[in-house]
Amino acid sequence: NVAGTTRDAVDTAFTYNQQEFVIVDTAGMRKKGKVYETTEKYSVLRALKAIDRSDVVGVVLNAEEGILEQDKRIAGYAHEAGKAVVIIVNKWDAVDKDERTMKEFEQNIREHFQFLDYAPVLFMSALTTKRIHTLMPAIIKA
Questions:
Q1: Distance of CA 127 to the CA centre of its chain
Q2: 83, 89 contact by CB (below 8 A)
Q3: SS3 letters for 2-42?
Q4: Which of 42, 79, 114, 130 is deepest in the core (most CB within 10 A)?
Q5: Which residues contact 70 (CB under 8 A, 6 or more apart)?
Q6: Would you write out the chain's pLDDT as a tens digit for each of its 142 residues?
Q7: What is the dihedral of CA 78, 71, 139, 81, to 10 degrees?
Q8: CA distance 10 to 25
Q9: Are strands 84-90 and 121-123 parallel, antiparallel or unpaired?
């Protein structure tokens, strides 16, 4: 739940609709590129290696924090590596919303990630599982 608490990329194999997948949960990147510890630097390197061995990269944004520079760097790395990308806005349950919030948030994402105009944007909550059902279909389609 807290960025920076996972140090290693953790592989988890699972089956979805009779198809085998491996999800790689990488180390959470700290805000605004603040890489103070040596272990943090290695965590970032391991995350980049995980991107290299992936087919689809889920760029997870924290809805409470918004878009961070590190999010853009990781997304750019995935894009430059030719990976399919799905943009996942997590903790959407924690955001005060009205009828325009989602559209405005997505417009902000599109402005910051212009190079990912092909990537779907999903809004969900891992905590409440709201809209989590949209994730695997988007990954498969990517």
A1: 15
A2: no
A3: CCCCCCCCEEEEEEECCEEEEEEECCCCCHHHCCCCHHHHH
A4: 79
A5: 29, 30, 31, 32, 33
A6: 555 455 567 888 899 999 999 888 876 655 444 555 565 667 677 778 888 888 999 999 999 999 988 888 889 999 999 999 999 999 999 999 999 999 999 999 999 999 999 999 999 999 999 999 999 999 999 9
A7: 0
A8: 5
A9: parallel
Gap between the Cα atoms of 123 and 76, Å rounded: 20
For the beta carbon of residue 14, count every other beta carbon within 10 angstroms. 10
Q: Which residues contact 117 (CB under 8 A, 6 or more apart)?
A: 110
Amino acid in the structure at residue 47: A
Amino acid at 24: V
The size of the chain, in residues, is: 142
In three state form, how does the secondary structure of 73-111 look?
HHHHHHHHCCCEEEEEEECHHHCCCCCCHHHHHHHHHHH
**Please, what is the Cα angle at 67 between 53 and 44, to 5 degrees?**
35
Which tokens sit at 135? Answer: 């994730």
